[in-house]
Known about the structure:
This protein is α/β, with parallel strands linked by helices and 560 residues long. Bound molecules: ligand C2E and magnesium ion (MG) (2 copies).
Amino acid sequence: MSQQTQALFDIILANIDHGVIVYDANNLVQHVNPAFERMTGYTASEVLGKDLEMLVSGQADRAIISTMRGSIDTKDCWQGEIKIRHRKGGTCPFNSSIHILPGQTGQPHNYVTIIRNVVENRDLDKDDRHNIQCNLLTGLPNQHLFKDRLEQVLITSKRVNKSAAILVCGLDRFSIINDGLGHAFGDLLLKAVALRLKSCFRGSDTVAHIEGDCFGMVLQMTATDDGVTIAEKILKAIKRPFEIKGQEVTVTASIGISLYPTDDENVDKLIAYAKSAMRHAKKGSGNKYQFFSNNMNTKAKKRIEMECSLRRAIEHKEFILYYQPKVNAESQQIVGAEALMRWQDPENGMISPAVFIPVAEETGLIEPIGTWGLREACRQNKQWQDKGLRPIRVSVNVSGRQLLATDFADKIKVILEESGLLSRYLELEITESLLMDNTGDNINKLQQIRDLGCHISIDDFGTGYSSLSYLTRFPISALKIDRAFIKEVEISKNASEVARAIIGLSQGLQMEVIAEGAENIKHVNFLRQNGCDTVQGYYYSRPVPAEEFEDLLSIVFIKW
Ligand code: C2E
Ligand code: MG
Ligand code: MG
């Protein structure tokens, strides 16, 4: 296969919405794609080399995998429905097909299973419709149905002027049982726990299986301490030994409780609050319940609120990129721009990335937000070039969590292809701390990005990790001196010495050196006199929207 065809296949595999699993004649998984990871919750590293059995739900589906082999010998392809296990528990019916993948001469065949969309509602019979709304393992309502039911309870509570308690219950150290005694044992335990939980409630109350070992419950309160009474009842019920496959096991649970309307009136926030309280209860030895409002401070509450708003912001496309010019110290010409994210929150106005990026990182939302930023910056830059403006390099900030994603380099490659931007016009800004985690893996990922032809710079250089040894090991093209040093260059000898040393270091290592935060002519002169290549800061321009940046760029030689 030519290199180009291989590259084409790689791009397709990384981007299609269908999950792909390649496995050998012994059922050992050889390859999975990112869509598979999204659909099943498993990462590639968790399944590679493992037996396909861990993914396929029941005996019937395992039988399908074996019998289809006979069928594809004659027909090349088998199509039908397979239930695939989700990492967080339960299974889902997918429209699937299985194909034969011929090995090289003399080599055995491999097989490819493609899993498409979940079997859609209109195709479902009563049982399957139940499966879409319910956790297939325990038969309890799943997260979607739980939210629906909670919505209904809140509407009724409002009408009759009553309160409601939302409880989220998780088993303490469930992963130890699951890993130690096996998934099949863990599944049986979850089923038994589900029955115990149901026995604690009236038939009309909702007990749901939200994910993994996490259950959600909602009850309308008739007395103020109803939440406490039920939480104590649950803890006691779970603590009683279970008998699974003739073996006695004891587990404990932790419960988080949020209250309607005291804590909030919004379904998503109430669930998030109860989960947060549960995590709090789990700290220490577990076997506890915890109310959200009693223990959570306003800061924690604000953070959770922001998480909910960020989710909405992604859906409603409330992000925008501003661009700040980077100017060549000698020619005074704009040679690049840094793309800086802004959030236009309809309620609170423009929000700084310093406020929302840390929450996005903590919650994993940085992945969709960051991908949008990369895509938008490349699209915009290409549009400027298509308009005939002088080509410049645009840099995008990348956080650790984005880089850790297994397919990050593939993602960059696809984004470049989609936008038509040449890779040399894209730069990624990463921080020093990012280079210190998981080093070997990160070197590989960064090298793949450099191999594509993109530039990589170290942002806020000088403030993070004190060892310089990594500079020689990582494929870095530029250092960005942190603005804290530039701010002080005129008043602090130490700061100016650090700035000079970073410039010298970059020159020695043949890297570009960029200074950020140049606010006045003294800063610019200092940087120019000391050999800094590129300067960025309010002296030239604040970060501005794309249209304004276009005006700056159309001035060929800037006379600042
Ligand atoms: P950063 O990457 O170090 O960006 C430079 C920050 O310095 C920007 O703040 C910029 O507006 C500000 N700045 C530029 N020139 C001057 C100056 O002359 N004086 C002063 N005082 N400040 C100056 P901003 O836009 O608020 O961004 C803050 C941080 O948020 C960024 O720091 C970056 O770490 C993060 N960030 C921004 N956009 C993104 C993004 O798309 N993804 C990720 N992961 N992080 C982002
Ligand atoms: Mg930056
Ligand atoms: Mg910086």
